[in-house]
Amino acid sequence: MQEIIDKLKTYFNEWKHDITAFTSSFKATKQNMANLQAQIPEVKKTVSEVQRSVEKMKFKNQPRLDRIKATQAHMQAELDRFKKK
Fold first, then answer.
1. Of the candidates 10, 33, 58, 65, which lies 20 to 30 Å from 39 by C-alpha distance?
2. 77 CA to centre of own chain
3. pLDDT of residue 85
4. Exposure string (b/e) for 1-15, b if CB count within 10 Å is 16 or more?
């Protein structure tokens, strides 16, 4: 009989420990979710700033890219012309 009582005590203590660990994990997860939600506006702001910077860079670089393409086309035309000779 004592053996059964000891096993029940052990089972209860393990169960109590598991519940305590689960509760701690749940609280930590809840806090982490709150922290994450608090950071969402900052992330949105950063993404917006990055997108704006990319658009600005595209706008500034487009004339250069157009000149590069024109130069490449001209060079290719000259090469084709020399190949024909």
1. 58
2. 45
3. 67
4. eeeeeeeeeeeeeee
